[in-house]
Design goal:
The complex is a heterodimer of chains A (167) and B (423).
Chain A: H1 2-17, E1 27-28, E2 34-35, E3 60-62, H2 75-87, E4 93-98, H3 105-125, E5 133-139, H4 150-156, E6 158-163
Parallel strand pairs in A: 4-5
Antiparallel strand pairs in A: 1-2, 3-6, 4-6
Chain B: H1 2-15, E1 29-34, E2 40-43, H2 57-67, E3 71-73, H3 89-94, E4 99-107, E5 113-121, E6 126-135, H4 140-156, E7 165-172, E8 175-182, E9 189-194, E10 198-203, E11 209-214, E12 221-226, E13 232-236, E14 242-247, E15 253-258, E16 265-270, E17 277-278, E18 286-291, E19 297-305, E20 307-314, E21 321-322, E22 330-335, E23 341-348, E24 351-358, E25 364-366, E26 373-378, E27 384-389, E28 392-397, E29 403-407, E30 412-418
Parallel strand pairs in B: 2-3, 2-4
Antiparallel strand pairs in B: 1-29, 4-5, 5-6, 7-8, 7-30, 8-9, 10-11, 11-12, 12-13, 14-15, 15-16, 16-17, 18-19, 19-20, 20-21, 22-23, 23-24, 24-25, 26-27, 27-28, 28-29
Helix pairs in contact in B: 2-4
Classes of the chains: A alpha+beta (167), B mainly beta (423).
Chain lengths: 167, 423
């Protein structure tokens, strides 16, 4: 359901603000209503969230085994989402922390929360408003990869950033 | 946004079908994989006039006792033993049995039936006691389990668990079903079905309600669900994650883990969701609370000392004492109903195993066999523990000898919770 909902919602939001990243001119669509197009040369408009060429379409932060700190390789990604959130104070984000399947499901839920919280704090440190972001945990319950070997476990040690409409 | 939310809410209402009848393949299959070193030989003949009962009750009694791993049921063509006369105890003893059941059924005028039974100690040539029970035809399984409980308690000194129920979560395809069944797998019912995970079921002390964590809102939220009506209520739905519900012994409150202040901390909340208050503050993870049977103490897991270990604290808060010291990962504490032992999950050289600690002397027994066990849950009395491993449930005696595997065909079964003794 999420997959269907997201494009539909983003399309609605797009229609509402009618931003077209390619052109900066005022458009007349023939209906008599002229829309002033807010050009978005920096690529930080809402469409950027699903544009595969935009860093904002990257939503996952991966963690090392038994680790709950955001690695430096995700600094650019954190900065991009923090900037987006501060530029769109109306947007809300849910961060879902995940763990691999080993051990207690409830304890893993608490560990997943630590990952989600680490991502949240990184975004806040980079300028996002903490009230925009809810950190939650899915623990080991929603693995992206179902096999019991290390590369799969690594895929599941993850925080995912979802924007409103996606959760 | 509002429209999206309410549309989703409606979808979910459609998904939450309470008390569905299950297709036959969804029933638990139980396989005995280990038995006690010495089993008590017992004679359980067909009941006198058993044909007046809607189904064979003696078969269910025999199956219960066999499955427990503590009895050798001698079913060698002994004629029915009337509950109304003294049998030839010496003759029964000569067959090698230590105990025998004499039982008689009769039809009553009002469509009900009566079962009278007496249990005999054959070495001592003495009666151990007996009962008379009146039942409606639909109660034959319950009555059989009660008779088996009686025999179990008289012959082992421990309360029986055959008339208890268990809860567990079955994942079939993309569906999660919170299921309730008798401990022998009979009478399966689905309490909740969802496309999102359900974990941590916890029985209220009276067995009428189950608390659990559902992810239907894309985050963990704690619900209390009344089994008879299917009605449920979110009792912890704060910002962040809400999980790990555990009932107080009087059923008035639950301990839960909330992350409303950032990391996982233990709170006490009324069973109706009222008055959440933080039990204590720690710099690390506190989760998996479990009340001692007297309600005075809460056991929990925490990384406050570095690794994950089990601690205990007064149910009024205050400072906590560490309980586990062996190894670097000890979590999921569950205290037996007599308060004497703790089942928990430990990580060692052979992976994740269920261990049982004698709380008086600290002695530890590992009772699981694979390396990926999780989610221990005691039977009432603490004689048996249920846990999950690799998509099946296992019931094992606290000495590790008696072992059963409980599975559902083509499905993964997890998150077991053994229900309370029926009142």
């Amino acid at each position: 359901m999420k997959k269907l909902l997201v494009p539909a919602l983003l399309a609605m939001m797009l229609a509402a603000c009618s931003s077209t990243p390619d052109e900066g001119a005022a458009l007349d669509d023939g209906s008599g209503v002229t829309t002033v197009n807010a050009n978005d040369p920096s690529g930080t408009g809402i469409a950027a969230l699903t544009d595969p060429n935009n860093i904002l379409s990257q939503r996952s932060v991966y963690f090392d085994y038994d680790s709950y700190s955001v690695k430096s390789e995700f600094a650019q990604l954190m900065q991009a989402h923090a900037s987006f959130l501060s530029q769109h104070p109306e947007m809300r984000m849910m961060i879902q922390g995940n763990t691999d399947e080993r051990g207690s499901p409830e304890y893993n839920l608490a560990l997943g929360q630590k990952r989600a919280e680490a991502v949240r704090q990184a975004l806040v440190a980079l300028g996002a408003n903490g009230a925009q972001i809810e950190a939650v945990s899915l623990g080991e319950e929603k693995p992206r990869c179902y096999e019991s070997y290390e590369s799969c476990y690594a895929e599941n040690r993850r925080g995912d950033m979802l924007y409103q409409g996606e959760f | 946004m509002k429209d999206f939310l309410s549309a989703r809410l409606r979808t979910f209402v459609l998904l939450l079908l309470a008390c569905l009848a299950l297709p036959a393949h969804a029933q638990l299959a139980i396989e005995i994989t280990g038995a006690g070193a010495t089993r008590i030989p017992v004679i359980i003949p067909v009941f006198e006039n058993e044909q007046v009962l809607p189904n064979s009750v003696s078969d269910i009694v025999r199956a219960d006792l066999e499955r427990s791993g503590l009895f050798q049921v001698m079913d060698n063509g002994v004629a029915p033993i009337s509950a109304n006369t003294l049998p030839d105890l010496a003759g029964l003893r000569a067959r090698g049995a230590d105990a025998a059941l004499g039982a008689s059924a009769s039809a009553l005028d009002n469509g009900r039936m009566e079962i009278r039974f007496r249990l005999f100690d054959l070495p001592r040539q003495a009666e151990l006691g007996g009962m008379s029970m009146v039942m409606s035809p639909s109660q034959y399984r319950l009555i059989a389990h009660r008779i088996a409980d009686y025999i179990y308690e008289k012959l082992t000194g421990q309360p029986g668990y055959f008339s208890t129920r268990i809860a567990f979560v079955v994942k079939s395809g993309d569906r999660y079903n919170l299921q309730i069944a008798d401990v022998d797998g009979a009478n399966p019912q689905v309490a909740l079905t969802s496309r999102e995970p359900i974990i941590s079921p916890s029985w209220s002390p009276d067995g009428q309600r189950i608390a659990y964590v559902s992810f239907e809102a894309k985050k963990p939220v704690v619900y209390v669900h009344t089994l008879a009506s299917g009605q449920r209520k979110a009792i912890a739905n704060f910002t962040g994650s809400n999980s790990a519900p555990a009932w107080s012994p009087d059923g008035s409150r639950l301990a839960v883990a909330l992350t409303r202040d950032g990391h996982s901390q233990i709170y006490i909340v009324g069973a109706d969701g009222s008055g959440a208050r933080r039990l204590m503050s720690s710099g690390g993870i506190d989760t998996e609370p479990n009340f001692s049977p007297d309600g005075q103490t809460i056991y929990f897991s925490s990384d406050r000392g570095g690794g994950a270990q089990i601690y205990r604290v007064s149910a009024n808060g205050g400072s906590a004492q560490r309980v586990t010291f062996d190894g670097s990962y000890n979590v999921s504490p569950r205290i037996s109903s007599d308060g004497r032992t703790m089942a928990y999950l430990t990580r060692g050289g052979s992976g994740f195993q269920i261990a049982i600690m004698n709380l008086a002397n600290g002695q530890i027994t590992k009772v699981s066999q694979g390396g990926q066990a999780e989610s221990p849950s005691f039977a009432p009395g603490g004689r048996m523990v249920l846990y999950a491993e690799n998509g099946s449930l296992y019931a094992v005696s606290s000495d590790g000898n008696v072992r059963q595997r409980l599975s559902v065909q083509a499905s993964a079964v997890r998150e077991p919770a053994w229900g309370p003794a029926p009142k």
